[in-house]
């Protein structure tokens, strides 16, 4: 069950041009393209004639022509041409989804278009803000998206999974505080006077201990921002510290596949291109360590015939709260018949 009345990251903005791109989101096929004027369009990617994939068809001007029998739809999803007949049956139309292009990504609202509310977009403005530099990508993951939200809401795993980059023993040893705030979950972990993890040393040249902050914000359906900071312990000069946001949107393709959109956006040493490469490479390696664990976890969950209930621990507080929010909102959408 998915939240339908909610925003999901559908694509990086530069991925969508005047050509047809297919994405599966919450179990639905969507075809995306830009009109000649540059507006992004998202339509249901299943031809109402015989269910062929429209994204395998052609753009004729700003209209989509099905590759199978040539029925053509405009960018509102209305049928404008049926080969061999003059009358266009009114049932021949496509669902059009509400989309917003913002902060380098294309966001899609999978529910009722008239309820699409831009104020519910996640707070990802640092992906495109003066004084910040965002680097990132999108990783296809063979696992349910909530295994990834669980992962990002409990960074204890950094100690065990990411020892080469952002993890060390201080993370697991420092307890987190978490708080439910409407449809958001906030998790905070502050590590004082602690050795910097390997990537922080590499990026900022820390020699002594640092005070390290992780401030995590979950916004439904599956957006997680991590405000990560490190400052030399006892030094007041913020210029000597580092701060970046790790901004993550987990877009469910279906129940067992996810598009993991990510960026790391920093506010220091912006012109340093060598640093860009280090961050991009090291963060991607870090996330691929997560993906390896999580894809294996998905297989074991699916093959567990006895379905023994999982046993939760204190560190699961944030992820359990986030799952409850998603469950409630998804049930509301299902009860209201929003598909
Ligand atoms: S299936 Fe699309 S025109 Fe026939
Ligand atoms: Fe991780």
From TrEMBL:
Top-level taxon: Bacteria
Swiss-Prot/TrEMBL keywords: 2Fe-2S, Iron, Iron-sulfur, Metal-binding, Oxidoreductase
Keyword Iron-sulfur on entry: yes
Domain Rieske: 7-108
InterPro entries: Cholesterol_7-desaturase, Rieske_2Fe-2S, Rieske_2Fe-2S_sf, VanA_C_cat
Entry coiled-coil feature ranges: none
GO molecular function annotation: 2 iron, 2 sulfur cluster binding; metal ion binding; oxidoreductase activity
CDD domains assigned to the protein according to its UniProt record, in alphabetical order: RHO_alpha_C_DMO-like (cd08878)
The protein's name: Rieske domain-containing protein
Organism: Neopusillimonas maritima
């Amino acid at each position: 069950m998915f939240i339908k009345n909610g925003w999901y990251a559908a694509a990086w903005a530069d991925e969508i041009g005047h050509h047809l791109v297919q994405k599966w989101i919450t179990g639905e096929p969507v075809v995306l393209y830009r009109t000649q004027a540059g507006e992004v369009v998202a339509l249901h990617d299943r031809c109402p004639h015989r269910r062929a994939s429209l994204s395998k068809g052609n753009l004729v001007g700003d209209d989509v022509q099905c590759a199978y029998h040539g029925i053509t739809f405009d960018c509102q999803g209305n049928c404008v041409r049926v080969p061999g007949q003059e009358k266009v049956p009114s049932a021949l139309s496509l669902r059009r989804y509400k989309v917003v292009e913002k902060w380098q990504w294309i966001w899609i609202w999978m529910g009722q278009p008239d309820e699409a509310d831009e104020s519910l977009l996640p707070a990802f403005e640092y992906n495109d803000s003066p004084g910040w530099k965002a680097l990132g990508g999108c990783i296809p993951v063979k696992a349910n998206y909530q295994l990834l939200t669980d992962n990002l809401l409990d960074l204890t795993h950094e100690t065990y999974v990411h020892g080469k980059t952002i993890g060390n023993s201080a993370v697991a040893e420092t307890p987190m505080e978490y708080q439910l705030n409407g449809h958001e979950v906030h998790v905070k972990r502050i590590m004082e006077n602690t050795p910097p993890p390997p990537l922080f040393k590499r990026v900022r040249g820390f020699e002594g201990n640092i005070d390290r902050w992780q401030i995590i914000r979950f916004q439904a359906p599956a957006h997680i921002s991590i405000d990560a900071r490190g400052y030399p312990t006892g030094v007041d000069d913020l210029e000597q510290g580092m701060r970046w946001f790790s901004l993550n949107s987990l877009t469910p393709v279906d129940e067992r596949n996810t598009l993991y959109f990510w960026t790391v956006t920093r506010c220091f040493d912006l012109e340093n291109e060598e640093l860009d490469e280090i961050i991009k490479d090291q963060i991607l390696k870090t996330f691929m360590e997560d993906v390896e664990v999580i894809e294996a976890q998905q297989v074991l969950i699916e093959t567990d015939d006895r379905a023994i209930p999982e046993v939760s621990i204190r560190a699961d507080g944030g992820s359990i709260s986030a799952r409850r929010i998603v469950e409630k909102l998804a049930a509301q959408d299902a009860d209201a018949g929003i598909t």
